[in-house]
Structure formats: C-alpha cells, structure tokens
Amino acid sequence: MIVPYYSVIGGWVMKYLFTFISGNALEAADNGGFFSNFIGYDAGSLSSTIFSFNGPTPWFILFVLATTIVVIFGVEKGIEKASRIMMPILAILAVVIAIYSLTIPGAMQGLKYYILPDFSQFSVSTVLGAMGQMFYSMSLAMGIMITYGSYVKPEVDLNKAVNQIEIFDTGVALLAGAMIIPAVYVFSGTEGMSAGPSLMFVSLPKVFAAMGKAGTFVGILFFVTAIFATLTSCISVLESITANCMEIFHSGRKKTVLVLAVIYLAASAIIALGYSIFYFEVQLPNGSAAQLLDIMDYVSNSVMMPFIALLSTILIGWVMTPDYVIDEMQRNGETFRRKKLYRVMIRYVAPVMMLVLFLQSTGILA
C-alpha cells in the first residue's frame, strides 16, 4: 500500500526539482496554484493526461524506475552501494541548508519556535501524532526492519546498532526541522506551518522564492535532499516485498522486481490520477476529507501500523516471550542492559499504548 502513493509523492519531488533546475522557482511559488494545477492536471483524455509532463504521471514513472533499478541489483550491489552514496550526501545537504536557514535574519525566532515547547498546545492527540510519525520514521511494525534484520551478519553487535539507529534517527529529524521551520517562520510565520504536502510543495517554494537568487540554489539542494530521502525509503519498502515474494514463490530477484514494478506502476497511476480523472472525496473516521492518496496513507499509517504493532507486542511479549529477543541481543556475549525495562515495556506498556493509538487513529477513541 505504501509503495504506490510514496512513488507518487516521489514523482512530485522530481517535478519540483526539475522546475527549480530549469529556473522556474517563481512559477512554483504561486501560493498553491502551481501545485494544484500539477497534481490535478487533466488534458481532457486519459492518454494525454498520463503522458504529459505537466501532470504527475511521467514523474512517478521515473521514480519507480529509479527504485526498481536499485532493488534489481540486490542488497549489496544495489541498496548498500546506493545508500553509501545517497545517505552521506543527504546528511551533508541537510547540514548546508540548515546552516543557511539559520543565518537568515529573524531565523533565531523561528528556531525558538521550533525548539522551545509550548505547553498550551500540548495534548494527548499531540503525543499520539508524534507516535504515529515515529512509526514511519523508524519503520516500526513494518516488514522493512524484519527484512533488513535478516541480512544482519551474526557478528554484528545489535546493542550498538540499536543505539546508532536511535541517535541518527533523532539527530536527522532535529536537523530536518532546523532546515525547514526557521525559514518558513521568517517568510510565512506560523501560518506557513501547515502539515503534509502543503508545507513541502506550497510553503517552502514561497520561502525559496523570497530568498531571491540564493533561493533557487537552496531549493535545488532541498529537493535533491528530498529525492534521496524518498528514494531510500521506497527502496527499503520494495526490498521487503521483493524478499518475501522471492521466498514465497521461489522466484529470481530480477523477475520478482520487474513483476512488482509493473503492479506498482499500475497502482501508482490510479493514485496519481486521484486528483484529476479518478477524483472523489470521502470523510475519514478522524474527520478529515480524503482522496485516494490520503486514504492509502491513512489505512497504512494510522490503522495497519498501530494494529500490527499491537499484535507484535502480544507475539513477542506473551507468545514467544521477551527472552526470544533478549537472547538474540546477547548472542555474541554482549550484555543487554535494558532487558528489565524491555520486559516491562514489551509486555505491559507498549500493548496499551498501541491499543490507544489504534483506537485514536481510527476515530473510535475521540
């Protein structure tokens, strides 16, 4: 469910990168008109709409092809090699943009807005929203972690690996905020802090346009960073599905990836045209209006992830027992220092939290 709509968003990023590289940054900063016309592009016929670069379809096809090529080459020659190139570049670009963002006059006020907590805005829904974001950020309750975990060599210290994931995930998240929030605050105020696609595809292009000539360069850097981020994420998801299909159907990697690519191209085309030819709107249980892409995001992120996480905590906490994981963490003689805390969390705290998150996300718990 994630790959089709993620590919569509990846295509949006590619379109914006091309727009900035071609020197049309001001065109992309027209207060949402450019974005609306792009995702809702309708040439009058299905074939004309699909093959026009004024619409989203050719762009997500490019994104799917890039993802497919990397996964075809496998873990070592494809994913590891791509990640070794893309991830350091992504981190460097993020640092460069963050530094530039913080040098803008007035950016320190934006940094305070970002860093300092406002307890008047604090609520249970805020915490649950942060938990939902954490699922995506760390790939919790998804096949990605299980698939990549199966590739880990026996001699790897899992305790050290977990610590690295915690540090880097949190660090990159803070860096991403420093890269975006202060600049948006300076040029658009708190009104520009809208969630979802409008922040990335409406508010930020306005910010880049307001920076003058430097804004085009910063915009290019930002969307290159975003391309790397979306590609690495989509590669991870596709690899998880590929690995499972290869095991279930006893098929080769190349054939499996190509078949999956065809399926996802078809599914992504329907979602990409969900703002034009296939447009319809429904109300989600959380009260928000949704199109095809929003529905896919809601079902996967807000329903399936917390529900599967709940089942996972029951499986590990009560069926397999926590010793199953603790023994794995200590397989090379290392000490799992958090094992007492882990027992309590996986058995008692996490199941309750996941149940509450699931009930809240589905609208059962208002």
How would you explain this protein's 3D organization?
With 366 residues, this protein is mainly alpha-helical. Helix content is 74%, strand content 1%. It is built from 15 helices and two strands. The chain has helices at residues 2-21, 33-39, 46-51, 57-72, 74-102, 107-115, 124-138, 143-151, 158-188, 197-210, 213-249, 253-272, 292-319, 323-329, 339-361; strands spanning 282-283, 289-290. The chain has a two-stranded antiparallel ribbon. A hairpin with a 5-residue loop joins strand 1 (282-283) and strand 2. Helix 1 (2-21) packs antiparallel against helix 11 (213-249), helix 5 runs parallel beside helix 9 (158-188) and helix 13 packs antiparallel against helix 15 (339-361). The two termini are 26 Å apart. The model has no long low-confidence stretch (mean pLDDT 88).
* Poorly predicted residue ranges: none
Number of helices in the DSSP assignment: 15
The total beta strand count reads: 2
Based on Cα principal axes, name the global outline: globular
Strand order of the largest sheet: 1-2
Name the average pLDDT.
88
Helix percent reads over 70%
Head-to-tail CA distance between termini: 26 Å
**What is the helix/strand order?**
HHHHHHHHHHHHEEHHH
Look at the helices and sheets and give the structural class.
mainly alpha
Q: What is the CA-based Rg, rounded?
A: 22 Å
Largest sheet: 2 strands, antiparallel
Fraction in beta strands: under 5%
Which tags fit this structure?
366 residues, mainly alpha, 15 helices, 74% helix
Brief characterization of the structure:
This protein is mainly alpha-helical and 366 residues long. The protein has helices at residues 2-21, 33-39, 46-51, 57-72, 74-102, 107-115, 124-138, 143-151, 158-188, 197-210, 213-249, 253-272, 292-319, 323-329, 339-361; strands at 282-283, 289-290.
